[in-house]
Amino acid sequence: MEIKSIELVQFRNYEHVEIPFHQGINILVGPNGQGKTNLLEAIALLNGKGSHRDAKDGDMLGWQKDYYRIKAQGLSSQHPFQIDYLYSNEKRKKVQLNGRTLRRAYELSEAVNTVVFSPEDLALVKGSPEQRRRFVDREIGQTSPAYSDALQRYQKVITQRNALLRRLRQQEASITELELWDDQVAPLAVEVLKRRLDGIAKIAPYARQIYQALSEGKEELELTYRSSFPLHHDRSRWQNDYKKALEERRREEINRQITLTGPHRDDLQLYLNQREAKVYASQGQQRSIALSLKLAEIAFIYHFRREYPIVLLDDVMSELDPNRREQLLQYLHRRQIQVFITTTHLRAFSKERIKEMALFRVQEGRLWPTTE
Ligand SMILES: Nc1ncnc2c1ncn2[C@@H]1O[C@H](COP(=O)(O)OP(=O)(O)OP(=O)(O)O)[C@@H](O)[C@H]1O
Fold this sequence. Notes:
The chain is an alpha/beta fold. It has helices at about 35-45, 120, 130-145, 145-170, 175-215, 240-250, 250-255, 275-280, 285-305, 320-335, 350-355, and strands at about 1-10, 15-20, 25-30, 65-75, 80-90, 90-95, 100, 115, 220-225, 265-270, 275, 310-315, 340-345, 360-365, 365-370.
């Protein structure tokens, strides 16, 4: 999978750029605040899952502009594709793949998968459960639009249920109404859970293998899922068990006006040699775990598509020590993965590596190829 060229119009600080890319490693180099991450964000949008830094569509409008456009051409499963991504204040968003308007932007993941690695990911082990859930959700969602769809529906119902809890607290609604909502939430929660657990079961062996290679076989990484209610091995019981769990915490939920049980409260737990990595692993080990999870995400996508995703490394090179940096670059280079790396300087790369890469200078919303 590869982006051959991109054109940005009024996107963030890019008035208009049009540039072809290298099929291997592309380096975007320039001082802080010039537009490197903005360009990466435009590429990340091409999988239809929204901004990798959680910006809203409207936030990416160039200042005082009323529309932006991203046009990209590339190759996916050896077929050429074209994506037209238009956002305007009036008409909101219009996303086209090969001239066909998509009902939902995430259908773009049929053509493009992107994996972003940013300093926030390096903090995945120590970070919040929400961060780890987001990692899992992005990862599974890329290979399964059905998962993204179920998750979206689940999140919507939870938001509505929370609004009902607020009304219950103010005695403006009845428990019968809540029970009706619970009947709607339960099948969605179970669908999300099943797909999540299946996804994690597939990614775990990759993460374990990759970590073993990074640590030269000395340590073992394990991933487990912590659900907010007990999961019986018989999956057909989950809906009823979930409803029971909701019922048990009903009073507390009404008091706090939020839904306390369900996949939106779960966590991915990481263990190193059977000890919880969050508590026991050193900072270096935690970085290797984060790196393994990201590389596992790449391997996982390959497993489904028989094609590697496009990899975006946002500001992570300077955060990694030379050894991990080289392991990462070697992994990507050997598999001929298209990569985009942002960096403020080239010190992090050896002369030999630089020869294999395409360099682009980024300055004040402009972008041009360079050799140094
Ligand atoms: N919606 C927008 N419209 C116009 N300019 C914007 C918009 N959003 C951000 N910018 C500008 O983009 C620049 C930041 O770009 P970006 O985040 O890509 O920086 P960067 O080159 O990656 O820098 P760093 O190395 O610090 O991460 C800032 O100058 C900011 O003012």
